[in-house]
TrEMBL record:
Residues 1-81 form the C-type lectin domain. It comes from the Eukaryota. It holds the Pfam family Lectin_C. This is C-type lectin domain-containing protein.
Amino acid sequence: QLSWKSAKSYCRTHYTDLAKIENQAENQQVSSNVTTFAWIGLSRDPWTWSDGSIGSFRHWLVNEPDNKESVQFCSVFLNGRKRIRIRIKIHSNFDLTNQEMKDNILLQMAASLASTGNKGFNLSWSVPPTKLEPEDLNHDNK
């Protein structure tokens, strides 16, 4: 993974420059080509594109730019289509193969995520829970 400065140098050597996003249509075009994140040509003091121009289009995340710890001088394009896998082990006497029970667990997890400010996410089971027999539950507690 390159730093912003290295990415700018690489793009200028092999292509033209880092991406410049000047309107919502270009923002959508970049979004459809970026899987997680990519450096863009916006840097600050004041915020200018790497070619020196000052653009008016800004599509910041909420509460950004905040220059956290006075070290945020470059821009990155983040695509919200991020996938995170969470492995959980549930010990319960309930039938976790029951669809209503699985849905309830996902609803509780969604509420927990939403309470921390996360939004626009989608939760699903990649491997549905299996029903443990009582002897399996006792074995784990030994």
